Amino acid sequence: MSRINTVLGPIAPEELGFTAIHEHIGYGMPGCELDTTWWKAPEVRYEETVPKLRAFHNHIREYGAGAGGYVDATGICNGRDIDYYKSLSARTGLHIVACTGFVGGDSALPFFERASVDYLYRQFRHEITVGIGGDTTAKAGIIKVGVSRGFKMKELDLRIYRAAARAAVETGAPIFTHLAVDTDPALAVFKEEGLPLDRVLFGHADDGVSQGKVKQDLLTELGGRIGFDTFGYDLELPDPPFWGRHRQDRLNHLLGFLEAGHVKQALVGADANCSPLGWPGVRGHTVNYIFETLLPDLRAAGVSEDTIHTIFVTNPTEFLTLTPGKN
Amino acid sequence: MSQVNTVLGPVPAASLGVVAPHEVLVSVLPGAQYAYDIRMDRAEIFHAVADKLTAFRAAGGGAVVDAGGMFAGRDVPLYEALSSATGVHIIASTGQMDEAMLGGYFLTPQTNPPTPWPAEKFAKLYADEVTEGMVVPRVERRAAAGLISTAVTASGMTPTDESQLRGCARAAKQTRVPLSFRAGADPLAELAVALDEGLAAERIAVSNAGDAAKPIADQGAFVVFADLDAAVQFARGGYADKTLVTTGGAAVAFGHEVASASYAELLRLVPADLTEQLLIRNPAALLAVREP
Is B137 touching A (CB cutoff 8 A)? Predict the structure, then answer.
């Protein structure tokens, strides 16, 4: 029986619908919870978050593809808050898929930094098959891995990649990466662990700071999925982040990928925070950029409705469907 | 009269009685709270710690200092309930341990480049825990921290260790609570960093001092011993007013192996003629909030 894990339990893939593949309810580096600079009362968090999710859900209803999916890419230690996600999903009708794993070695606290590949694998497997944090309803639907700051894979990053690959092979959960740079060591790990690359989304291939550092052609040729998942971090914003990029450049990047015939390997998201946890966030950027700016841009560029459906419905559904025994 | 910041508010230093001056009540290796196979039952934790505090109280103990800092298991509401239930004063600490124990927020912030925190930011974070109260993360502030506690990497002080040690010393000077640090490879040089911030040596306790114990005490700082025989020898060698003792363990620990502490045993093992100096006068002198 095929299924996708959400914070409210597994759903049939047919229920998911239009999905943003790499988002954040709220992200912060480990330890930011100690600094009151960033604290907000829970009622403020809900006020900042619920309207964005509801608007996204309503856009999806108008579009006509299911309740919609919101894949949260906030790893263990980065402020992942399953109880909160459950309430948001239940109250907005949006399916929220939480991840296990880590944004990168930088985000793994000492307990996990000291852990073996085998322990990390068991942590990920438990969160996918049993539940997260003692909860047995909420299960992780995807595994997060990533490259530490500096664009160079560190030993701890790779230990996490290997553990994730093992958990993915066994549970059938997909993997998405923070950054698609320095992928040679990652490709070696995935090969050694026997993980097909269509179960891996190489994320943030489209961000401003990764350009020139991503072996996009190789990753595509090997069957990997490419993440155009920082849509909306435009340098045209009043106060763009350092990873921002010119809107038209990013759009052209995706259009080129589609024109080259790789629509089945494209996954798209906004990487926006509803309410950031340990940083100011980027004013004016929400997940709704996808409907309010990107889809009009794609249509204006002549992208067909079939292609849009493939990118935002078919691809995420196939990617997120657990394939135990097949990965 | 000098006051000491306890989790239930300030109390006169003279009222603490017998103090276990450098312990850890709840020790959590950062991240262990998210481990799939570690069960942290608050009721069990409470009772395990309460049993140790009650035994300490029955043996004549009056106060325990939790020197674990703000990011290694400290649970202020739990400590408040423990203090109320057992009648043992609990003094909790702010600060964080050596660089490897810090979260990415302090080491690789979301700036380009990801520059680790400078001393002044650590100073503010920790001073605020004294002047505004200790945090229950993302929920509220509670009572004032009574100690600022940090550590230097065992193999040698990293630049971030130094920033943090300076920040802690600065916060201690500003807020008038004492500083404690676990020394790394060069205790005297590390003490010099804290002194360089203008904090008086009398406001500093150094653990893991090794061979540097005497020169550290000669400068006026306290030395914390986990080896009781060494502590007794040091005290009897003319340093009784600079000697502090610790079990070196924790009441309960998660995610790593830490010896199980017994505060009653600590009190029992300190020779009777040294009890007043080591467990009453010295802790009161260190913990009293006063001019740096």
Answer: yes
Q: Find the domain containing B31 and state its range.
A: 3-287
Three-state SS at A101: strand
- Whether B114 contacts chain A with CB within 8 A: yes
CB-based contact, B46 to chain A, within 8 Å: no
Beta bridge partners of A175: A143, A200
Q: Return the CATH number at B273.
A: 3.20.20.140
**Nearest-5° Cα angle at A122, A188 to A318:** 65
User: Is A17 at the interface with chain B, CB within 8 A?
Assistant: no
Choose among A164, A179, A165, A290: nearest CA to A226: A179
- CA of A143 vs chain B CAs: smallest distance (Å): 15
ipTM of the modeled complex: 0.96
Can you list the domains of chain A with their CATH numbers?
4-320 (3.20.20.140)
Question: What does the alpha-carbon distance between residue B67 and residue B226 come to, in Å, rounded to a whole number?
Answer: 13
Q: Is B163 left (phi over 0), alpha (psi -120 to 50) or beta?
A: alpha
Sheet of A200-202, strand order: A99-101, A142-146, A175-178, A200-202, A225-228, A266-268
Cα radius of gyration rounded to whole Å, chain B: 18
* CB under 8 A, 24+ apart: contacts of A249-254: A250/A206, A251/A294, A251/A297, A251/A298, A251/A301, A253/A206, A253/A228, A254/A206, A254/A228, A254/A298
Q: A135 at the B interface (CB within 8 A)?
A: no
- Flag if A33 and B101 touch (Cβ within 8 Å): no
Q: What are the residues facing A260 on neighbouring strands?
A: none
Residue B262, domain member (yes or no): yes
| Dist. CA B226–CA B228, nearest whole Å | 6
From A34, A77, A130, residue closest to B70, measured CB to CB: A34
**Nearest residue, CB atoms, B71 vs list A31, A39, A148:** A31
The one-digit pLDDT tens for each residue of chain A (327 residues) are 899 999 999 999 999 999 999 999 999 999 999 999 999 999 999 999 999 999 999 999 999 999 999 999 999 999 999 999 999 999 999 999 999 999 999 999 999 999 999 999 999 999 999 999 989 999 999 999 999 999 999 999 999 999 999 999 999 999 999 999 999 999 999 999 999 999 999 999 999 999 999 999 999 999 999 999 999 999 999 999 999 999 999 999 999 999 999 999 999 999 999 999 999 999 999 999 999 999 999 999 999 999 999 999 999 999 999 998 776
Query: Distance, in angstroms, between B132 CA and closest chain A CA?
Result: 11
B292 within domain boundaries:
no
Q: What would the two tokens of residue A252 be?
A: 């052209």
